[in-house]
Design brief:
The chain is α/β, with parallel strands linked by helices. 42% of the residues lie in helices and 23% in strands. A hairpin with a 2-residue loop joins strand 5 and strand 6. It is globular.
C-alpha cells in the first residue's frame, strides 16, 4: 500500500525535559515524508531561534485574535503570560505538501488534538526515567530559576499521570534506544 499522508498527524508529547524535541529532530531526519508543525508562541524569541522555523512568534494580542477567529487546532497558556498553539493553517500547509505534520506539543494540547482527529493520529508519550532525572536535566540547561524549575517539575509530575491516554509510551532512559523505538512506531503508522 502506498504512503497516504491525507490528514494523518503524529503527536510527540512529554513533560519539559523528557527528550521529545531530540526524538522529534531524529524522526524528521529519518523520514522525508514528515514535516515539523511550527507552533505559535507568545514568549520572547531566544537568540538562536528563527521566526517561522522554531515558532511563529506572536504578540498576545495577535494570539488572542487568532483564538477569537478559531484559527487554532489547540492552544493553551502553558505558563503565566506564555501561550502556545497549533494553527490549523500550519497543518493544512503540511498536508498540501503531501507530508505528515509532527506536533511537538504539551500533554493537554496533545489530548485535545487526539480528540479532534481520532483515527488519523498517532500519539507518542515520551516518559522520563524519573521525576528526579527530569529535574536534573532541566537544571543542567541553566535556563531555569529555582522557582521556574520547581513549577516545571510539578507540572511534569502531573503530566506523567496522563501517559495512559496516548497510543504509545516510550521510556527515554537511553536517547538512542528511545529514538529507535519511535522510528519503529512511526514506520508502522505510516504504512498502516
Amino acid at each position: 500500500m502506498s504512503f497516504q499522508p491525507k490528514n494523518k498527524i503524529i503527536i510527540i508529547t512529554a513533560p519539559s525535559g523528557a527528550g521529545k524535541t531530540s526524538i522529534t529532530h531524529y524522526l524528521l531526519k529519518k523520514f522525508p515524508q514528515l514535516a515539523f508543525s511550527v507552533s505559535a508562541a507568545t514568549r520572547p524569541r531566544r537568540k538562536h531561534e528563527v521566526d517561522g522555523k522554531d515558532y511563529y512568534f506572536l504578540s498576545q494580542e495577535d494570539f488572542d485574535q487568532k483564538i477569537k477567529h478559531n484559527e487554532f487546532v489547540e492552544w493553551e497558556m502553558v505558563y503565566e503570560g506564555k501561550s502556545y498553539g497549533t494553527l490549523k493553517s500550519e497543518l493544512q500547509r503540511i498536508w498540501d505538501n503531501n507530508q505528515v505534520p509532527v506536533l511537538d506539543i504539551d500533554v493537554k494540547g496533545a489530548i485535545h488534538v487526539q480528540g479532534q482527529y481520532s483515527g488519523t493520529v498517532l500519539s507518542i508519550f515520551v516518559e522520563p526515567p524519573s521525576v528526579d532525572e527530569l529535574k536534573r536535566r532541566l537544571s543542567s540547561r541553566g535556563t531555569e530559576t529555582e522557582e521556574s524549575l520547581q513549577t516545571r517539575v510539578n507540572k511534569a509530575s502531573y503530566e506523567i499521570s496522563f501517559k495512559h491516554r496516548f497510543d504509545k509510551i516510550i521510556l527515554n532512559d537511553d536517547l538512542n534506544k528511545a529514538c529507535k523505538r519511535a522510528e519503529e512506531v512511526i514506520t508502522e503508522f505510516l504504512n498502516s
